C-alpha cells in the first residue's frame, strides 16, 4: 500500500497581505519574480498519473468553489464533464453555452488557495515561503 506524507514546517515571515500597502514598486517586482520562480518549480513536479486529484490520488479541495471536496477524476475529460454539469445552467446572455473544453490541457500541481494570506515575506520584503497547501492538487494548467 502506498502512503503519502505531506511534511509541514513553521516558516519565518509575515503574510504579504499584512504588508502589501507598504511595499514599493521595486519590492513588488522582486517579489513577483521570486514567486514566479517558485511556481515554475512546483509546476515541474510530475503528475502521478493521468487524472485530476489531490495528493496521493485523493479528492481535491477548494475553498473558492461551493463544493469544497470533489473528485478524484481518472482523466481531465472526467473533470471537465463534471464541471460542465455543475455550470451548464449558466448560459451566456446570448443563450449559448461556454466554448468546448480542451481535453488535452496539461495537468500541473496547483496550490489551490494562493492568496496574499498564504504568501510569506521577511522584513526586507523577500519571499520566505508559501503556506497552506491543503487545497493543492494536480489540476488543469489554467486552474
Our measurement of the CA-to-CA distance between the termini, rounded to an integer number of angstroms, reads 30 Å
Shape: elongated
The CATH topology annotation reads as Aminoglycoside 3'-phosphotransferase, Chain: A, domain 2
Percent strand equals: 15-25%
How are the strands of the largest sheet arranged? 1-6-7
The CATH first-level class comes to Alpha Beta
Structural class: alpha+beta
The major β-sheet equals: 3 strands, antiparallel
Topology order in helix (H) and strand (E) letters: EHHEEEHEEEE
Organism: Calocera cornea HHB12733
Pfam families: APH (PF01636)
Protein name: Aminoglycoside phosphotransferase domain-containing protein
Domain Aminoglycoside phosphotransferase: 2-142
Structure report:
This protein has 143 residues and is of the alpha+beta class. It has a single domain, classed as Aminoglycoside 3'-phosphotransferase, Chain: A, domain 2, CATH 3.90.1200. The protein has helices at 16-19, 25-43, 76-87, and strands spanning 14-15, 53-54, 60-61, 69-70, 107-110, 119-121, 127-130, 137-140. A 3-stranded antiparallel β-sheet has the order 1-6-7. A 3-stranded antiparallel β-sheet has the order 2-8-5, with no helix packed on it. It has a two-stranded antiparallel ribbon with strand order 3-4. The two termini are 30 Å apart. The relative contact order is 0.23. The model has no long low-confidence stretch (mean pLDDT 86).
Amino acid at each position: 500500500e502506498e502512503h503519502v506524507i505531506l511534511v509541514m514546517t513553521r516558516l519565518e515571515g509575515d503574510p504579504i497581505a499584512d504588508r502589501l500597502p507598504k511595499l514599493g514598486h521595486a519590492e513588488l517586482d522582486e517579489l513577483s519574480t521570486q514567486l514566479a520562480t517558485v511556481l515554475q518549480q512546483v509546476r515541474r513536479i510530475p503528475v502521478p498519473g493521468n487524472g485530476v486529484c489531490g495528493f496521493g490520488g485523493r479528492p481535491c479541495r477548494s475553498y473558492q468553489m461551493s463544493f469544497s471536496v470533489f473528485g478524484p477524476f481518472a482523466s481531465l475529460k472526467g473533470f471537465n464533464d463534471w464541471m460542465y454539469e455543475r455550470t451548464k445552467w449558466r448560459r451566456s446572455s446570448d443563450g449559448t453555452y461556454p466554448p468546448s473544453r480542451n481535453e488535452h490541457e496539461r495537468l500541473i500541481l496547483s496550490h489551490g488557495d494562493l492568496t496574499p494570506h498564504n504568501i510569506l515575506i521577511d522584513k526586507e520584503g523577500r519571499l520566505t515561503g508559501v503556506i497552506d497547501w491543503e487545497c493543492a492538487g494536480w489540476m488543469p494548467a489554467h486552474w
